[in-house]
Design a protein that fits this description.
Elements lengths: L17 E6 L7 H9 L3 E2 L3 E19 L7 E6 L2 E3 L1 H6 L6 E3 L9 H18 L6 E20 L2 E10 H5 L8 E2 L6 E2 L1 E4 L5 E2 L4 E3 L6 E3 L3 E3 L6 E3 L3 E3 L6 E3 L4 E2 L6 E2 L4 E2 L2 E2 L6 E2 L5 H9 L7 E7 L3 E8 L2 E8 L4 E9 L6 E2 L7
Parallel strand pairs: 1-7, 2-11
Antiparallel strand pairs: 1-6, 3-4, 3-7, 4-5, 7-8, 9-10, 11-12, 13-14, 15-16, 17-18, 19-20, 21-22, 23-24, 24-25, 25-26, 26-27, 27-28
Bound molecules: zinc ion.
Length: 355
């Protein structure tokens, strides 16, 4: 039967054909039957998977018959996503549909009417001049399912979104996508939790060589000294080089007493202490030292060097050398040391002596 869309196309030009509607008894395409098919795909270890926010609704599939020069008419199918081939159209079992006398009730909804109008407009645009050859048009209202799966393991949850034609899911022609692990980019229908509680997939798990915990691979890194693969939480960052290593391999600078990676130490001195350069006593760092320890105002031969995390400042005062370590995260003076003028042996001093 003629539909409201029969007499005019979305751009108000008259359609040259009758637009019919077809539906089928598709009660078997229920959320329950679809969820059963989807659930059967997944294995969630020590957790659960459930549908959330799932909707199933009829969407239009447009079948157009075009006049052809040969005896056989030409048939073209469109969905709102574009043209579909005949195999795809057949998979929606359109041959089981029957034309209905009236428009389906859901076309009373403006959004559904707009969906149909957009489909006709798309077909008209794609076919261009060939649209004039259309002599028969049928809209098959096929169930389409849009949903989200929620996976829960312990305190964590993950999600999978899907959007498919219901018939193709039930017939196994389309499959809900596997779970995509956000930490590794790997995906699987088997979903597990690592020993830190992160939801992931089995092929993304690695074992920390220190704790023996199975952890998602993005949370594992190599110790820069030993090469051992360990949880990044087990690694310590060298303040001088930025390298990550197991802290047991760190070495202390004999001059500034800072722990650094072995490669940042040479002859017992860290890279900062080895690169001290003459500094202007008027610079802010030295100014802070002068302010905190007024006796240093008689200091001479100021030198300074810094890495990303700390700065080392030295000066000579009377018969000793003084050394200050400044934590650059908050500019606090964390260590004060002294040595004789040769600077061979350094030891901490009571800062009250300098005040
Ligand atoms: Zn040092």
């Amino acid at each position: 039967m003629n539909s409201q869309s029969q007499n005019s196309s979305p751009n108000s030009e008259p359609l040259s054909f009758e637009l019919c509607h077809a539906t089928t008894d598709d009660d078997h395409l229920s959320i329950q039957s679809i969820s059963e098919v989807i659930y059967s795909l997944f294995q969630v270890d020590n957790g659960s998977i459930k549908l959330s926010g799932c909707s199933i609704e009829p969407k239009p599939v447009l079948k157009l018959k075009l006049k052809s020069h040969s005896e056989a008419s030409e048939i073209i199918y469109f969905t709102n996503d574009g043209e579909i081939n005949h195999d795809f159209a057949n998979s929606l079992r359109l041959d089981e549909f029957e034309e209905i006398a009236d428009e389906p009730t859901w076309l009373k909804a403006p959004s559904k009417r707009a969906e149909l109008d957009q489909l006709l407009e798309l077909a008209q645009t794609k076919l261009a001049e060939d649209f004039q050859r259309v002599f028969q048009a049928t809209v098959f209202w096929c169930k389409h399912v849009d949903g989200k799966l929620t996976i829960e393991i312990g305190e964590q949850s993950g999600f999978i979104k899907f959007s498919y034609w219901a018939q193709r899911i039930v017939d196994g022609l389309d499959s809900c996508p596997p779970y995509l692990c956000e930490y590794s980019g790997k995906s699987s229908y088997q979903i597990v939790s690592d020993d830190l509680g992160n939801i992931t997939v089995p092929q993304a798990l690695k074992t920390c060589e220190i704790t023996q915990k199975k952890i998602v691979e993005s949370q594992i890194a190599a110790c820069s000294v030993s090469g051992r693969q360990v949880a990044i939480t087990e690694l310590w960052t060298c303040p001088a080089s930025g390298k990550k290593l197991l802290e047991t391999f760190a070495k202390k600078c004999s001059k500034c007493d800072q722990s650094v990676s072995p490669e940042a130490i040479e002859r017992g001195f860290c890279i900062v202490c080895r690169s001290l350069n003459s500094a202007d006593p008027g610079n802010p760092t030295i100014g802070r030292i002068l302010e905190n320890f007024p006796v240093t105002q008689s200091g001479v031969g100021w030198k300074e060097s810094a890495c990303q995390s700390y700065a080392v400042v030295t000066c000579r005062r009377r018969l000793m050398r003084l050394l200050f370590v400044i934590d650059l995260t908050d500019d606090s003076i964390t260590i004060v040391r002294k040595s004789n003028l040769l600077g061979l042996r350094w030891k901490d001093i009571d800062v009250e002596q300098l005040k």
